[in-house]
Each structure stands twice: as structure tokens, then as C-alpha cells.
């Protein structure tokens, strides 16, 4: 056919062929452009079903208008009955050819998978299932843009099933279990195939193999693929989880949509770009790919032993500064601080934390003078890489901190880039008093109890009085009021107004402060109910600091209340990976599982968290809720009672225990809790949501809706959880509930 003119297309050369067509390069003589023409093979022209599938390919693909889907111009037929499609011609190569040269870099593989997922998400939204996603059907142009081609097996929603009983369509090695056994398939078959393709991009091999098709199908149905980490050690655990979830054999355990998988991949991309070593929560030093360090809280050697806040503060500031350095892995604060006060060899500590080196030091204060000693120790042999003493007046504290940080990084990485130095020594106040007050605020904030939050607010406010331009202190105030608002410690209308004022001041001072954008994302989620605005703030947070663990925790809650559970769980896991023993992060990881109705997994994670601290308020509170969903009423009362013992006046805890008592038939006790809430409301703010929970358990739905209406007036943060909180599953179909959820800003 080379040199022939078909319709208004002049055939220039043959590009390739497959089971469903032969492709030629051609010139469109009317529009003067190069196109690709795909012809049904002559031997299949008599096969009516094959020809129908071929036409469906054109119809399906031409209805899509997306940058990651091949553009279809027209479908036509030659005079002698040969059907063909005219489509865009791209310079580049197929993913199959690219993989055959070598496995892709992590960045290339994830970027390619993200683009495929975007194209599939668009197709699935229009009811189109590709059913033959494989490297040969993925084209990458010279600009790196991915194009999904060959919708020859596409199936439009509502169209008659084209698979005969006992037969399959597609390429065996990339088939989902349901497709391989000839069952009806939906969009989740494409998610499986994308998981297989991503596995192959990362390792250069397919996850399921065999000498003949039945052997491959057996592997798909019954065997687990070899772990990615065993084939390529630098693959982060977060990325491996994405691949394995996509290839879960039951379709219900895969991602609910290609969009959910794309979001999980983008989260992995941020980790990879940040150089995060996610292969293990505590990787052995010899496995570390990057220079790594843990900063221990400095020891207070002052006679009065009154510098604990300063000792913790300077270590925390060093951690925050070192985290900004690309190519340096820093153990999280909570993980490093667990060894505070323990007389352990630093070599043991370093091995526990999976780092190559440990920084320890001491502080001795006398009158207006301070001596800080610091030493950097190699974990493998206990050798001192560097040590120094600093005798200074108190006003030189900032210079000391900068000197220590720069000296450590120089030892760890050699020559330091100028822009990295700038990041490291960036400070937000030169006022020594303001700095000390800020450190005291962080000290009490990290205690995370009601009294601690109040003290933290006091110290942060004093810090900004001393230096109004201390942006992190303004963020500290915002964080304190955000937590006060969501836990019902004060009227949310007051709490969030104060939080917004503080975070606005922080951003006015420095619009590039990641912590401030994360705090604003919290406000937009739990008070403004501005989902798009909140997400934009979180994405900005990670642009500025991908390793801000609290930002990932905040974002996981945002995704959870929006019902994007897989993404929510992934973000919570990211926070835990960054700070493995942080009680709040571990609790939220369990909460996201609970919201996603994975109750058994949530209960297991709650137990692990409570093993670290049996009295942790949030973990006990939510643990009771998870047990309640399993109707383990007696067991559910116990952790909520522990939470009440920690915070006796918590309206939230009282509402939850009242709910459990009511739902388990202990009506009299539940009504007594309701009476106590009414009495408590005479002394302090008591939100109406806690009362609504009790009426929900009593199945007094009219009273419940009255309380929820009042909670709407009070702008309670917990209303954002109506869309996802399992406790409300009984009333989800009630028109009043549907209307209420819409008023909070969700479309159902």
C-alpha cells in the first residue's frame, strides 16, 4: 500500500501491526498534515464481531478529548471494504520499546503512570473501559507526553457484552483475574492492568509469567508477584503499596477509581522528589541511600535545671533546619525525642533510628552566659566526627544555632550549595526573648492536652508581643486554636476567627512558610468548608516542604472528610513514615482506616498506638467508635471511659460514650450523660453535635436532626465528617440527612 492514496490520505510507510490492525504513516492531502492510519487486517474483514469492535474503538476514542488519549480524526472505509481510522501521528516510541532498553527511573515510571491514570480516569467517567492496557498501547512522544492508543477492546457502558462465554479479550499477561476468567469487567480491570504496567516499568519484568497462556492465567489467579523491593531496593514502600493495591485480586480491594490511583501516585512522586527513604520505617544504616542524622534533645546541665524547654527547642530548630537540606535524611522529632532522659549509648540509638550519625549536646546557663556543647557521632563505630563548645552571651543564641547546623552538614555532605545554606540559616526572629517564648510554646504544644494548649497559646502570644514579625509563633497560635475548635474546647466561631487572624499575619510576614499554608488548609476544611481552596493550600504546603509531617496529617483529614479514603490513608501513612512514633499521626492513620470502613485494620492500628501510650485521648476516643461499628458495645465503653478520665470535661467524649450506651440499650445511662451535657453547657461551650450523637444512638431521629441543625448554626467542625463518619450510616438515606450534608457543601 506504500505510495497509494486512500480517500485523501497518501500512504508513506508502515509503522507497525497488531492483532487488531495494521498502522501506516500517511499524509492528509486536504489539511496538509501527517497522520496515522489504522486498517483492520484483511483476514478479519469477514469477522463481523472483530469489525464491530474496531468501529467501537474509533467511536470510544473519538468521544474523548484529553491530552493523554490519542486524537481520532475520522473513521472511513475504502472502496473494496477495508475499514480504517485516521488518527494523530506522534514522533516518539511505545512504552514497550522504552522498557525493553532498561527499567525506567522511579520518576519516569511514576510520571508515566500518572499520565496513564489521568487518561483512564477521563475515559471511565464517560463509561469507556479500555480492557487492553499494556506497554504496546502506550505511546510516549518526544516531549514526554503519554498517549493511550488502541481502544479496540473498549466497551461502552450499556453496550451489549462482546465477550463470548468462556472467551477473553485482551493480552493475557496484563489481564485482571476477572477478565482472564471471562467474567464481566468494569473500569477496575484497567486499574489492574495499569498496576501490572507500572510493575514492569519499575523492574523490567512482568509480575505474572509462564511458558504458555494457561500458566500465566494460573499465576494471575493464584500467585502473588515478587515484592518490588526484592527486585529493586530503592523503590519506596509507599510506591510499592500503590502498585500492590492496584493489583489486588478482588476488584473491591483495588482503587475505586483511576483518579484515586493517580492521587496516590502523585503522593509517591512527592516523596521521591524529596529524596524520602521510604523503604522501611527504620532502615538499617547500610541500606540508607542518603546521608542521615538524628538530633537528640540537648541535656540541661544548668544548676537550676530550668532550661528543658530551651534544650528541646534548640534540637527541634536544628531538626527543622536540617530537614530543608536536599540529600539529607533527618530522623523526625518524635522518633529522636523518645530517647530523652535515657542513658543509652548513641550507637544503640542510631541503630534504632536507622541513621548513620547522631548529634547530641548539652546546655549550661549561668547568669547571662550560656555554654552549648555539641558532638556528632558515627553510629557504626562511635567515632566523633566533630565536636565543639560555644561560650556566648544569651543574645548570640541564633549565631550558635547557625554555626552548629552548618558544621554538621559540612561534615555530612562536604561542600554545601549556597542556596541550601540560605535555607538552613533562615530565622524568623532576632529577639532572644521572643525566641525563648516561642520555644516554650512549642514545648507545651507538643504535650497536646487541654492545659498544654492553653499554656502554648500564652507563650506564643507573648512571643509575638516581643517580636510581631515572628511568623512561626503566629502559626503556633493558629494551630492551638484549630485544635481547640475541632475538639470542642471553645466555640468554633471564636476559635477559627482567632486562628484565621494568626495565620493571616504569618502569611503576611512570609508567604513561603509551609506551616502557615497547612494551617490555613485546616481552617478552609473544618470551618470554611471550602474544599478546593483547602486542597490548594495543602498542595502549596508540599511544594514548600514535602517533608512537613503535620501537613500530611492535616491533608489526610481533609481527604477523609471528602470521602477520598485511599488518598487519605496514603497521606496518613506518609505522616507516620516521616515520624513513626508520633501518637497523633499513628492515631490519624487508624482514623482514616475507620472512615474508610476498614474496621478490623483500624482496630489493629488503634491497639498499636495505645501500646505506645494507653491513655492517649484521641486514640481511645476513636478506638471506641471503631469497636462500636463492630457492635462490641462493652469493649467500646472502656477506651472512651479512659479518654474521659484524661479530659473529664470533654463534650465530645461525653457525646460518644452516651451514643455507645444508647445504641447498646443502656438508655437510662445514656439519658444521664445527656443531662450532664446540659448542665455542663451552663459553665462552658458545649457543641450540639455531642447531643446529636446520643439521640442518634437512642434512634430519636427528630431530636437528633434538631441538634444537628443547631450544630450547623454553631459551625461545628464535626459536621464536615457527616459525609464519611460511619456512625451515621443508619440515617444516610433520610432526606433530612441528605439535605444537611448538601448544606455542609457535599454533593451526594
Keywords summarizing the entry:
single chain; 748 residues; Transferase(Phosphotransferase), domain 1; six-stranded antiparallel sheet; six-stranded mixed sheet; 12% strand; globular
Question: What does this protein look like?
Answer:
The chain is of the alpha+beta class. Among the domains are: 5-88, Phosphorylase Kinase, domain 1 (2-Layer Sandwich); 94-273, Transferase(Phosphotransferase) domain 1 (Transferase(Phosphotransferase), domain 1, Orthogonal Bundle), CATH 1.10.510; 285-427, Rossmann fold. It is 52% helix and 12% strand. The protein has 31 helices and 17 strands. The protein has a 6-stranded antiparallel beta sheet with strand order 1-2-3-4-6-5, with helices on one face. Strands 12, 13, 14, 15, 16 and 17 form a 6-stranded mixed beta sheet that branches. Strands 7-9-10 form a 3-stranded antiparallel beta sheet. β5 and β6 form a beta hairpin. α19 (514-528) runs parallel beside α21, α25 runs antiparallel to α26 and α25 packs parallel to α27. The longest helix has 20 residues, at 106-125. The two termini are 55 Å apart. Residues 153-169, 276-289 and 414-419 have low confidence and may be disordered.
Amino acid at each position: 500500500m506504500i505510495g497509494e492514496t486512500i480517500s485523501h490520505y497518501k500512504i508513506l510507510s508502515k509503522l507497525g501491526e497488531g492483532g487488531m490492525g495494521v498502522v501506516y504513516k500517511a499524509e492528509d492531502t486536504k489539511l496538509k498534515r501527517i497522520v496515522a492510519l489504522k486498517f483492520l487486517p484483511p483476514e478479519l474483514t469477514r469477522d463481523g464481531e472483530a469489525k464491530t469492535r474496531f468501529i467501537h474503538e474509533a467511536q470510544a476514542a473519538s468521544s474523548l478529548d484529553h491530552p493523554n488519549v490519542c486524537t481520532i480524526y475520522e473513521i472511513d472505509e475504502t472502496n473494496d471494504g477495508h475499514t480504517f481510522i485516521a488518527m494523530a501521528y506522534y514522533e516518539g516510541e511505545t512504552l514497550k520499546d522504552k522498557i525493553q532498553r532498561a527499567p525506567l527511573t522511579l520518576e519516569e515510571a511514576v510520571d508515566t503512570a500518572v499520565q496513564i491514570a489521568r487518561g483512564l480516569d477521563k475515559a471511565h467517567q464517560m463509561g469507556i473501559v479500555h480492557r487492553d492496557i499494556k506497554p504496546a498501547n502506550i505511546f510516549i512522544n518526544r516531549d514526554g507526553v503519554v498517549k493511550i492508543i488502541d481502544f479496540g477492546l473498549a466497551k461502552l457502558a450499556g453496550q451489549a457484552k462482546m465477550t463470548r462465554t468462556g472467551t477473553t479479550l485482551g493480552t493475557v499477561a496484563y489481564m485482571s483475574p476477572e477478565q482472564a476468567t471471562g467474567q464481566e469487567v468494569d473500569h477496575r480491570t484497567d486499574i489492574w492492568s495499569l498496576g501490572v504496567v507500572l510493575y514492569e516499568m519499575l523492574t523490567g519484568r512482568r509480575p505474572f509469567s509462564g511458558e504458555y497462556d494457561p500458566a500465566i492465567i494460573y499465576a494471575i489467579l493464584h500467585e502473588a508477584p515478587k515484592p518490588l523491593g526484592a527486585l529493586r531496593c530503592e523503590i519506596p514502600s509507599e510506591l510499592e503499596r500503590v502498585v500492590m493495591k492496584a493489583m489486588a485480586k478482588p476488584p473491591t480491594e483495588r482503587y475505586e477509581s483511576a483518579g484515586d490511583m493517580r492521587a496516590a501516585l502523585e503522593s509517591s512522586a512527592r516523596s521521591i522528589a524529596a529524596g524520602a527513604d521510604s523503604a522501611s520505617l527504620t532502615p538499617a544504616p547500610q541500606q540508607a541511600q542518603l546521608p542521615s542524622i538524628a538530633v537528640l534533645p540537648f541535656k540541661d546541665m544548668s544548676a537550676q535545671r530550668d532550661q528543658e524547654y530551651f534544650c528541646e527547642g534548640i534540637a527541634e530548630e536544628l531538626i527543622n533546619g536540617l530537614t530543608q537540606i536536599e540529600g539529607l535524611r533527618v530522623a523526625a522529632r518524635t522518633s529522636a525525642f523518645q530517647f530523652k532522659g535515657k542513658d543509652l549509648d548513641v550507637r544503640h540509638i542510631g541503630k534504632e533510628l536507622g541513621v548513620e550519625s547522631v548529634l547530641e549536646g548539652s546546655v549550661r546557663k549561668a547568669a547571662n552566659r550560656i555554654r552549648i556543647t555539641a558532638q556528632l557521632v558515627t553510629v557504626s563505630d562511635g567515632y566523633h566526627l566533630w565536636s565543639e563548645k560555644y561560650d556566648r552571651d544569651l543574645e548570640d543564641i541564633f549565631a550558635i544555632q547557625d554555626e552548629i547546623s552548618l558544621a554538621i552538614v559540612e561534615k555530612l555532605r562536604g561542600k554545601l550549595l549556597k542556596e541550601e545554606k540560605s535555607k538552613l540559616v533562615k530565622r524568623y526572629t532576632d529577639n532572644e526573648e521572643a525566641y525563648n517564648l516561642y520555644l516554650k510554646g512549642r514545648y507545651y504544644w507538643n504535650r497536646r492536652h487541654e492545659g498544654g494548649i492553653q499554656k502554648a497559646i500564652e507563650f506564643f502570644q507573648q512571643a509575638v508581643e516581643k517580636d510581631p514579625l515572628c511568623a512561626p509563633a503566629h502559626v503556633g497560635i493558629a494551630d492551638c486554636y484549630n485544635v481547640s475548635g475541632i475538639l470542642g474546647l471553645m466555640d468554633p466561631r471564636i476559635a477559627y476567627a482567632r486562628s484565621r487572624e494568626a495565620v493571616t499575619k504569618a502569611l503576611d510576614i512570609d508567604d513561603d512558610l509551609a506551616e502557615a499554608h497547612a494551617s490555613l488548609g485546616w481552617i478552609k476544611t473544618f470551618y470554611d468548608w471550602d474544599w478546593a481552596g483547602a486542597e490548594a493550600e495543602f498542595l502549596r504546603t508540599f511544594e514548600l516542604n514535602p517533608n512537613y509531617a503535620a501537613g500530611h496529617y492535616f491533608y489526610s483529614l481533609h481527604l477523609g472528610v471528602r470521602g477520598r479514603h485511599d488518598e487519605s490513608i496514603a497521606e496518613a501513612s506518609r505522616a507516620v513514615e516521616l515520624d513513626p512514633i508520633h501518637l497523633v499521626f499513628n492515631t490519624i492513620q487508624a482514623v482514616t482506616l475507620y472512615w474508610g470502613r476498614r474496621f478490623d485494620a483500624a482496630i489493629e492500628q488503634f491497639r498499636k498506638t495505645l501500646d505506645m501510650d494507653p491513655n492517649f485521648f484521641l486514640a481511645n476516643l476513636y478506638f471506641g467508635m471503631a469497636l462500636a461499628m463492630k457492635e462490641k458495645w462493652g469493649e467500646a465503653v472502656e477506651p472512651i471511659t479512659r479518654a474521659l478520665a484524661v479530659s473529664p470535661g470533654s463534650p465530645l467524649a461525653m457525646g460518644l460514650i452516651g451514643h455507645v450506651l444508647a445504641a447498646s440499650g443502656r438508655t437510662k445511662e445514656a439519658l444521664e450523660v445527656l443531662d450532664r451535657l446540659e448542665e455542663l453547657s451552663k459553665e462552658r461551650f458545649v457543641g450540639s453535635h455531642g447531643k446529636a450523637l446520643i439521640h442518634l444512638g437512642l434512634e430519636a431521629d427528630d431530636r437528633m436532626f434538631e441538634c444537628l441543625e443547631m450544630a450547623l448554626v454553631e459551625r461545628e467542625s464535626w459536621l464536615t465528617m457527616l459525609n464519611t463518619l460511619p456512625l451515621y450510616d443508619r440515617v444516610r438515606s433520610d432526606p433530612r440527612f441528605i439535605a444537611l450534608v448538601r448544606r455542609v457543601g457535599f454533593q451526594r
